[in-house]
Specification:
Elements: H1 7-16, H2 26-29, H3 42-49, H4 58-68, E1 74-81, E2 90-103, E3 105-112, E4 117-123, E5 131-132, E6 135-138, E7 144-147, E8 149-151, E9 159-172, E10 181-188, E11 194-197
Antiparallel strand pairs: 1-2, 2-9, 3-7, 3-8, 3-10, 4-9, 5-8, 6-7, 10-11
Helix pairs in contact: 1-3
């Protein structure tokens, strides 16, 4: 609300990545929920990120994509789980891209039971030079989720094609733990087009 977009806005988004409308402090950042879906995610963050570090000419990207390719942002995401075994083992959630095109940012939510598993971390071998803004968040309603969130700050290489994007690891705290629930996946182009999708 200070009339300019700068690193302070990005810092706010970094602090509140994954915040939902169920959280008691959501009103503090609700103006930053640009698409109004009740979640601070990669799309909201991209609105600031494309204007930092020299910025991106989003109008150029919109014109160029539609001139050369019609539908700019495309492709899908899928998840593979390592075999769930016994207490103490590591469960890995691997996220793959299929026929991706022009991805400048992405995020998703992995809801999990903290009594059944412990979040260990995320690595992203397929997301090139994107900044990692991932948060493990306990919500006001008592639910917990990891929000793998990766965004290009300024003009950086886009992600396209097929292959492994990222891996999220958990340690099992008890036998028979349910796998994390995957939802709220979104990909964003440098033209700020976005696609929410269901991941099986």
């Amino acid at each position: 609300k200070d009339g300019k977009v700068d690193g302070n806005d990005l810092t706010s988004y970094m602090n509140y990545t994954g915040l939902r409308s169920v959280d008691s402090d959501f009103d503090y950042v609700s103006d930053g929920d640009i698409d109004g879906n009740g979640l601070i995610d990669a799309y909201d963050i991209s609105a600031v990120a494309v204007r930092l570090e020299g910025g991106i000419d989003t109008e150029y990207w919109m014109r160029e994509f539609h001139r050369t390719a019609g539908d700019t942002l495309s492709g899908s995401l899928r998840v593979e789980l390592s075999e769930i075994r016994k207490t103490g083992d590591t469960l890995t959630v691997s996220v793959y891209g299929d026929s991706l095109k022009a991805v400048n940012a992405l995020s998703l939510a992995l809801s999990y039971d903290p009594a059944a598993m412990e979040y260990l971390g995320v690595d992203a071998p397929g997301l090139l030079r994107m900044d990692n803004l991932t948060r493990d968040r306990l919500h006001t309603d008592g639910t917990r989720a990891v929000y793998p969130t990766f965004v290009n700050i300024g003009d950086k290489p886009l992600v396209s094609g097929d292959g492994l994007l990222l891996r999220v690891s958990f340690r099992l705290l008890k036998n028979g733990a349910a796998a994390p629930d995957v939802r709220d996946a979104v990909t964003v182009s440098p033209a700020l087009e976005y696609r929410y999708m269901t991941i099986e």
